[in-house]
């Protein structure tokens, strides 16, 4: 069986590696088991040697011919298995993580801790601070800044969104058909109607399965499958889904961002791609600064975003960054999916203050919310409440201390009164369950449709569905705000920032490339100049084979976690209408080229010179040329494997399978004349 280098040709300073390799024992045991068998016992040339053909093959490759090596191999492999498991347990028990997860602490929080520790006057500490005009992060009161008076650098058109008799259904799942259900479609929204207006903060609530997130996704155009019926209008004009992202923002619950860029760079990048080309760089940067102040991120402008739960921003800070990333697009309508989920009371209050500030600019803001505290619930102006099955049961104002909501439900015969100090949000969900409907013998959706509140809402929908006199439909000739070239430049700019600040990938890859080059070069030292025997030719060919396959596979494996993290960001940014897939792919591919080129230069020069291959210019050029493109296609294959699979774990499995196939059919392990199918 061909291998990279014969044991007899390994240099003395590397022979320890031969004896320490588990693969050596496995290969020797398998080879001895095969070539000392009956099929290989013929003597080819008795005049030359009495060795059997099998023994001659083993000796030519420097493999031991003692039959005991079969048992030696078995024992060595069992020993390595035990050793690795023991070391696995020991290292888990003794070693700490290389880095501890840390959250970025803002300047305001540092000052608050300093005051609590020393008792100094906080006003003296605030003097001269750059963020003195920003509200403190330490409080829990949810009040909006007076953004109307100070104004924003970029104007926007306040827009309302109305929807009438929205029905959404999907094909009936097969498992439900197997249970005897005969309908072809499963209806998730049943004729839902409502209106969201500028300057009004609306809470979209309901028990699990009520369809609140489904409704918001339908309105935002995030549902790519299923069947949608009904009318959706933007300030009286039919909604154009192709360009809707130009006037709307969508804050996802998961807070997905590139980890290796700063807060400021994240906002600049979003504004660069989503604002109109008519907005110059100076106005764009001024607007970014105002948005950072609006959501209280100014003190964190230079902080790296980091990975959730690992490093960088805290959960609450990431929530505010998510809001800011959408705000810098200067949208008229913003959808927020559970902006306070996973936060404690203090952090939720900070996020809701940022949401309140956003509403006070005159934008239309809709939030899905799940079991909010009293303070969070009271921060909303209106409530859109849904019941399980996709029907609305209350659409209207909350009032002071939720008085309008409480009066409405307490006015329904049989509904129990709310206790003093009880959370109205919790109370309304408790009294509107399906079990309560059965107990009371009523349907809250029918009660709502027969109420004066419903009739007022239908009148409001009718009013807002008619374009105001003198208004014009917002028209965009292009789906994306920026040209294809600008999209490419912006994506490449962010990828450059991300790679530059990720030395664990870029610098480590170069370091290990250098180390591996030195190892390979010294293992195959000067073998390129030895051509006296057939084994010398095999050694020279093996050096080229090992040089290509080892670094190539390493590149393909190392790039996959990087691409996997950025892919989730790509899905969010593409859905937001920032760019098409091609500019992103261009940037992801192009940024790898200089890194792979540097890797090729380092690796090629070291290995080529130490092996002692022919220094003719053209031979060296073609060696480097093919090495460079081989490293590239391995790297790009690793990226492609991530793109075509659900996650990096499956991508690694798929990629490894193809690496094995490529290895077998490369023409080295199995010659071409043998591998013809």
Task: Describe this structure as you would to a colleague.
The protein has a 6-stranded mixed beta sheet with strand order 6-7-8-3-9-10, sandwiched between helices. A 4-stranded antiparallel beta sheet has the order 2-1-4-5, with helices on both faces. Residues 121-140 and 144-150 have low confidence and may be disordered. It folds into 3 domains: 1-98, no CATH class; 198-221 and 243-446, Rossmann fold (3-Layer(aba) Sandwich); 482-677, no CATH class. The radius of gyration is 33 Å and the shape is elongated. The chain is built from 28 helices and 10 strands. With 677 residues, it is an alpha/beta fold. Residues 161-413 form the ABC transporter domain. InterPro entries: AAA+_ATPase, ABC2_TM, ABC_transporter-like_ATP-bd, ABCG_PDR_2, P-loop_NTPase, PDR_assoc. Belongs to the ABC transporter superfamily. ABCG family. PDR (TC 3.A.1.205) subfamily. Keywords: ATP-binding, Membrane, Nucleotide-binding, Repeat, Transmembrane, Transmembrane helix, Transport. Its main location: membrane.
